[in-house]
Write a structure and sequence with these properties.
single chain, alpha+beta, Heat Shock Protein 90, Ribosomal Protein S5, domain 2, Rossmann fold, 4 domains, eight-stranded mixed beta sheet, five-stranded mixed beta sheet, 19% strand, binds adenosine-5'-triphosphate, ATP hydrolysis activity
Length: 589
């Protein structure tokens, strides 16, 4: 024996209100949608039929009347008495594209705010019917209803605790929210509350100002720019407002979406590609599908194709801006720099699009990649802010432009640029390259300096540093501490290896580059101080001064200071103080 399932209406209402819909306020959207669908159905047969929706509010009662197709008594029995039954699907069960509804559950949402729903309906060709359903799952039908005009009136009686959803001001606000674009006359208590026009549908010069006003009013910001969106395949029109403030690219951007001119939701995700984090779109589409909650778009191939098409339009805007108004593009990038860089790192298209305008800090001021390329053909960068601080001034004095790649994403971007942009060369700058642009001394001077260099070398042997003398700008800089990157890596690795256990020691040992080149202290022969030091007769003082310069160069270059370094610097500092402060005669003697 087979039996039918029973449905617990209270359980279903609970499911709708707590799990499907985000707020009871959607009850009004569902009622409005049914009224619109009924009007659409009637228009199909009688294009001259009126298109009106009348909402009436009173204490704890709300009614919504439409001039739609109405229902015959047999349809009332079939459609209103069965959960999941809908007149808006075709014979094979597909949603009919002209209607908003499709699931056959929308009317139930009224039970989130009502104990009782009354439907009085009058079709063009039959008697009127009154259907009354209650939240406990019962309904009654009477074939004698008092209604003369073709259409339907749905009346709700407030459920205890839901009275706030019936207040006139709330109802007006919700009707405007959901129904602003509907091309139907909608009145609340006799007053027309919508004009049915999308803000982007205006014509003439006032349009841009209107759109800016719309963004200020509805989205709460003055857009940096407005981009028109259009995708006939999805029956889509609308606009994208460019944010005037930096947005977090990790947070998914959400958009205001109207479906067949009825608001789907104000925070729909996935309409635009992830990289388009810098715009908020407002669009209307007739072809994309909603999810059952009608609060999001169904993520199918159609949405994917739409996303690509809209992405192409946003790219087009960026490219146009680059060629027609570079100053404005510059301003745009100043606001969205970080986000654009974050995306360009993963999205080749984006990188190709914006690379020319990306700005980087260099030791010759902020520059775009195009400017950098023009300057020296090859873009040299250092990967950390510390490295940049060490080298910026000295490299600038040698006419070498170095980019500070220490800011978020910058060195990764510089590394990736040549992969995406043909002909662009970027190299990581090795500090020791600097010394190749320093001048060597003539053999005589070199010979003369030999005892001093030997003394300096003896002083710095304990910290493993090699002393060389060169001539370079600026003359005010007496010494520069240079450490080769691969030597630095090798020495850090060895320090870690000494602390690690046997297994890791072996692994780390395999990585060792065996680069034994020592860091260098390059003394600047153009510096008057260095010259004076070289001619000092007092060996002890000369040694203290070299140690002092060593400490100074370490600190100036933000290099790490080892215990041996600090012992040496300490000794030098106290020694120099000792020499500088005269010994006082003891008056008691
Ligand atoms: N105002 C109305 N005028 C005429 N028929 C209506 C009206 N409201 C509801 N109906 C009928 O009742 C059926 C069920 O309505 P309900 O709102 O539950 O589902 P739906 O609109 O079909 O789909 P969805 O759940 O997606 O909204 C509709 O398919 C429609 O035939």
């Amino acid at each position: 024996m087979s039996e039918n399932f029973q449905v617990d209406l209270q359980g279903i209402v609970d499911l709708l209100s707590n799990h499907l819909y985000s707020s009871p306020r959607v009850y009004l959207r569902e009622l409005l949608q049914n009224a619109v669908d009924a009007i659409t159905a009637r228009q199909g047969m009688d294009p001259e039929a009126p298109r009106r929706i009348d909402v009436r509010t009173a204490d704890d009662v709300l009614s919504i009347s439409d001039t739609g197709i109405g229902l015959r008594p047999d349809e009332v029995r079939e459609l209103l008495a069965t959960i999941g039954r809908s007149s808006k699907r075709d014979e094979i069960g597909f949603a009919r594209t002209e209607f908003l509804g499709q699931f056959g559950i929308g009317l139930l949402s009224a039970f989130m705010v009502a104990d009782e729903i009354e439907v009085v309906t009058q079709p063009a060709d039959g008697p009127a019917t009154r259907w009354i359903g209650t939240a406990d799952g019962r309904y009654t039908i009477a074939d004698t209803a008092d209604r003369s005009e073709v259409g339907t009136t749905v009346t709700l009686k407030a459920r205890r605790g839901a009275e706030q959803w019936y207040k006139q001001a709330t109802v007006v606000e919700l009707i405007r929210l959901f129904g602003a674009l509907l091309p139907i006359e909608i009145r609340v208590d006799g007053e027309q509350v919508t004009d049915g026009k999308a803000p982007w549908e205006g014509i003439g010069g006032a349009q841009r100002a209107d759109l800016v006003g719309y963004a200020q009013d509805k989205l709460g910001f003055t857009p940096f720019d407005v981009i028109h969106l259009n995708n006939p395949a999805a029956g889509l029109t609308g606009v994208a407002f460019v944010l005037p403030f930096a947005a977090n690219p990790a947070e998914r951007a959400t958009h205001r979406v109207y479906l067949k001119r009825m608001l789907l939701a104000e925070n729909v995700e996935g309409l635009l590609p992830d990289w388009a984090f810098f715009v908020r779109a407002v669009i209307d589409t007739s072809e994309l599908r909603p999810t059952a909650s009608r609060e999001a778009l169904f993520d199918d191939g159609n949405l994917e194709a739409t996303r690509d098409a809209l992405g192409a339009q946003l790219r087009g805007w960026l490219v146009r801006l680059g060629s027609t108004d570079p100053a404005k593009l510059d301003k745009f990038l100043a606001i969205h720099q970080l986000g654009v860089k974050a995306l360009a790192l993963h999205d080749d298209e984006m990188l190709r699009l914006v690379h020319r305008w990306l700005r980087f800090e260099t030791n010759h001021g902020r520059m775009t990649t195009a400017e950098l390329q023009e300057r020296s053909g090859e873009i040299r960068y250092v990967a950390t802010i510390e490295e940049f601080r060490q080298l910026a001034a000295v490299a600038a004095a040698q006419q070498i432009t170095v980019v500070n790649g220490g800011y978020t994403y910058d060195s990764e971007l510089l590394e990736r640029l040549p992969e995406v942009v043909p002909g662009l060369v970027t190299t990581r700058f090795d500090p020791t390259e600097l010394s190749t642009s320093f001048d060597s001394l003539d053999p005589d001077t070199e010979l003369q300096l030999r005892p001093f260099v030997q003394l300096a070398q003896d002083a710095l042997d304990s910290v493993g540093c090699e002393v060389v003398v060169r001539a370079f700008e600026p003359a005010s800089l007496p010494a520069l501490y240079l450490v080769d990157r691969s030597a630095q890596f090798a020495s850090e690795l060895r320090a870690t290896k000494d602390r690690a256990d046997a297994l890791w020691s072996e692994v780390l040992g395999a990585l060792d580059t065996h680069d034994d080149s020592r860091p260098q202290l390059v003394l600047n022969h153009r510096s008057p101080l260095v010259r004076r030091m070289a001619s000092l007769g007092d060996r002890e003082l000369a040694q203290l001064a070299v140690e002092g310069l060593y400490g100074h160069a370490l600190m100036l270059g933000y290099h790490p200071i080892s215990p041996a370094d600090s012992a040496l610097v300490n000794r030098s500092f106290l020694g120099l103080l000792d020499q500088a402060v005269p010994t006082q005669e003891d008056p008691s003697r």
